[in-house]
Design goal:
By secondary structure, the protein is of the alpha/beta class. The protein has a single domain, classed as Glutaredoxin. It is built from eight helices and seven strands.
Length: about 180
């Protein structure tokens, strides 16, 4: 009986620990420094403070423990406010903060460079270990749609197969999460 109680407590502790897992967000400068020491893919969430869909991504998708664990294990995750006024140094170049270049809304020059001027929020930039842009993806993503996307890049399947072929073979861990709870 005592052994059963210990096993039960251990199982509950691991469920609680998994449920509390959050993405370890960092700045792009931190990700660049970490990549120099321990190469890893980089995921950049380009957002704004006023963006409702960005907030929903944080609440619904990025807070999912399965997503958070995978992101932490395979990527350096970066939050980049597209409207910050901070000067950011990236790949030896300084990007000056918030500027108005198109007569409408302004944005940070680094965000503009990463998104190639297509300023839509939220947007996600996937970079390889050398911090070269592989893909820019825009829009809100539910966890069920986001999970295969990050696996496609994090598992390096993009190097050997198409996204459609990958989706045919992909096995979600989100369903397993529901069964464990």
């Amino acid at each position: 009986m005592k052994r059963l109680v210990i096993i039960f407590l251990f199982a509950m502790a691991s469920i609680v620990a998994k449920a509390q897992e959050t993405i370890n967000w960092m700045s792009i400068e931190e990700a660049e420094a970490r990549c120099a020491e321990e190469p890893r893919m980089v995921f950049i969430d380009v957002y704004t403070d006023w963006c409702g869909w960005c907030k929903r991504m944080d609440k619904d998708t990025f807070s999912n423990p399965v997503i958070a664990k995978y992101m932490n294990d395979h990527f350096y995750a970066v939050k980049l406010n597209a409207e910050t006024s901070d000067t950011i140094t990236f790949q030896g170049q300084q990007y000056v903060g918030y500027v108005r270049e198109d007569g409408r809304n302004g944005s940070h020059r680094l965000a503009r460079a990463l998104l190639k001027g297509k300023m839509s929020y939220p947007s996600y930039v996937i970079m390889n270990e050398e911090m070269r842009v592989l893909q820019v993806i825009g829009g809100y993503q539910k966890a069920e749609a986001f999970e295969p996307m990050i696996h496609f890049f994090g598992d390096e399947a993009y190097k050997v197969m198409s996204g459609n072929d990958f989706l045919k073979e992909f096995k979600s861990e989100l369903g397993e999460q529901d069964q464990k709870q």
